[in-house]
Design brief:
12 helices, alpha/beta, 4-stranded mixed beta sheet, 37% helix, 9-stranded mixed beta sheet
């Protein structure tokens, strides 16, 4: 059993997710059992919100590189936060355990209303930056402009990090064409209905196999939208510093505080369109604390779909790939029309529990774009 809180950086009393070595049976009573092969996760069993059981296993996990073979990069870690010092403290507490050296840790305070975030950052001995312009992507850009590392890694304040998170994230930059790497984000806890629902239908995890998203695949299928949202999650991502000089910064109209979501996926899409490879590396593991209330989850999904709609329009605006426009104006509305029809015929479908919030959010994305049609020259 991988039940050592020092290893996982998680307080045992908040689990509901159990971690075992490969070959052990799922843990009775656990919402989710994650299977590990030594230091890397290779699969899970989830008691899903629809009442069924979800099983995912790696087909052939990539071999971990020995520490002596790792590329040598200086790394800046950026954490953007606002009015959540208790979350930030927990996240910062997992960084001293990292097995790869950290050049600097930067906390970007996106307009907190009191001095708690500043005081915590100063006490922790990290770089503190104040950014009063509202928006997660504004804060991400502020951090990137001040970062000195060759690799710029991002995580969120509601995340704790496995001790080898950074080592395996950096190791995945093993070719010059790889511009971005994301990691596996597992739930830190599944203790209530809202958290299980999110993990069942909106999980950050993209599985247990390494995946490369390449410019060749992008160019070969311009009639469809490359699903950049499947590359990973903004809670665990890293970039070569020089990509910002080539493709610009995050679009400040997207993500939390603005449209609501998808600033990360739009940036990955832009990188691939510019000729970079984006890699998903599940050996790099972070643990995310999902929202605990159904009302809060409903609001989150509204903003997710508002941001997703906005991102499709921004991707078309920035790259000229018309498939994004077709997806935004035709295919996604058609999908939601089908969902609405099925929901009316069969009331109580669990996957449609937040259908109203999703549809309203998606429509709100169009209105948001009409109000913010121009790219900020600072991005």
């Amino acid at each position: 059993m991988l039940d050592d809180p020092a290893l996982l950086s998680l307080p045992a009393e908040t689990w509901g997710v159990r971690h075992v070595q490969l070959g052990a049976p799922p843990v009775a009573g656990a919402s989710m059992t994650v299977f590990w092969n030594a230091e890397r996760p290779v699969g899970h069993v989830l008691q899903a919100a629809h009442g069924g059981i979800e099983r995912k296993m790696a087909r052939q996990p990539a071999l971990l590189r020995a520490p002596a073979d790792l590329p040598c990069h200086t790394v800046s870690i950026i954490i953007c936060t606002r009015d959540r010092p208790e979350h930030l403290s927990r996240c910062l507490g997992s960084l001293p355990r990292q097995s790869y050296p950290i050049h600097e840790i930067i906390v970007v305070d996106n307009g907190s209303r009191d001095a708690g975030t500043r005081d915590l950052a100063i006490a922790a001995g990290v770089v503190y930056l104040r950014e009063d312009r509202k928006g997660l992507d504004v804060a991400r850009n502020t951090g990137a402009r001040h970062a000195a590392g060759e690799i710029i890694a991002y995580t969120d304040d509601d995340v704790v990090l496995h001790p080898h998170w950074l080592r395996n994230l950096v190791a995945a930059f093993d070719a010059p064409e790889i511009g971005a790497v994301t990691g596996l984000v597992l739930p830190a806890e599944l203790m209530n209905e809202a958290q299980v629902y999110f993990e069942s239908y909106w999980s950050f995890s993209q599985g247990y196999d390494r995946k490369d998203f390449t410019p060749a695949a992008f160019r070969a299928d311009l009639g469809h939208v490359l699903p950049a949202w499947k590359i990973g999650a903004g809670a665990s991502m890293a970039f070569r510093r020089d990509v910002f000089g080539r493709v610009g910064y995050f679009d400040a109209r997207l993500d939390v505080g603005q449209a609501g979501c998808s600033g990360d996926s739009e940036f990955w899409y832009r990188l691939i369109a510019a000729g970079y490879v984006c890699r998903y590396e599940p050996a790099s593991v972070a643990f995310h604390y999902h929202r605990r209330g159904m009302e809060s989850l409903g609001s989150q999904l509204y903003h997710y779909m508002r941001g997703h709609c906005m991102a499709l329009l921004v991707q078309y605006q920035r790259t000229g790939v018309r498939a994004n426009l077709s997806m935004a104006l035709f295919w996604k509305p058609r999908y939601y029309a089908g969902c609405l029809f099925r929901s009316l015929r069969r009331r109580g479908l669990p996957e449609h529990r937040f259908l109203r919030q999703e549809i309203i959010g998606y429509l709100a994305g169009f209105l948001f774009f009409l109000r913010h049609p121009r790219i900020d020259p600072r991005d």
